[in-house]
Amino acid sequence: MENTMHIHDRVKGNPVLSVLVMTLFFALMIPLSSMVVKFFKPNEKMLIVNFKYISTPIEFEKNTAGGSHMQSKIPVVKKRSPVMLKIFSSDDKKLIYEKEYLPRGMRSDIAMFIYTQLTLDENTVDIEMTETEANDKRFRLENVQLKKGDGTFVVFKDNQMELGGALPSQK
User: Fold this and answer.
1) What CA–CA distance (Å, rounded) separates 82 from 114?
2) Widest CA span of the chain, in angstroms?
3) Strand spans (E) along the chain
């Protein structure tokens, strides 16, 4: 009898108590962990213009060197148009912000990232983006409402400027 081992299970689990403890844990997890995080100061109106834009080509490269099988079938862009971003007050049409964005790359042929973040006092603004070399390309948003404590995002989607995160009924 010396080589036998006896296991005595004296502690019995209570399944009802276990289920109650787990239910209480998950029930209290949501109300105790729902913390509101503010990204913007509550007394400021923030306008954020942020998008990637590919402007109109204004110069093309003519490559006639090499064999015809090595030449591009479509013209290669050599230079793209710069873009001017202007922000006006909707009330008195006063210019608030103006900046020219240049295409990236050594040859100025790569898409540009248009970004600005402004803290404004106005309630509504007009935003205008124009290609400086191709004047027929002009995008405009009028009467963009700014709210205190919240950021208003302007994005470029489906070949037009629009408010970011706006539902179709809010446009």
Assistant:
1) 11
2) 101
3) 45-53, 57-61, 76-80, 83-89, 95-101, 112-120, 124-131, 138-145, 150-157, 160-163
Burial of 76 per CB tally in 10 Å (0-12, 13-18, 19+): middle
Compute the distance between CA of residue 58 and CA of residue 79 in angstroms, rounded to an integer. Answer: 6
Instruction: Yes or no: say if 112 and 101 are a contact pair by the CB < 8 Å rule.
Output: yes
CA pair distance 146, 45, nearest whole angstrom: 6
Domains within the chain, CATH numbers bracketed? 45-166 (2.60.40)
Q: Which residues are CB-contacts of 121 (< 8 A; sequence separation ≥ 6)?
A: 45
Segment-wise mean pLDDT, segments of 10 residues, the chain, 171 residues: 75 84 90 77 89 85 74 80 93 93 87 91 93 85 89 87 67 47
Alpha-carbon torsion angle 125, 131, 137, 139, nearest 10: -20
Residue 107 region by backbone torsions, left for phi larger than 0, else alpha for psi between -120 and 50, else beta:
alpha
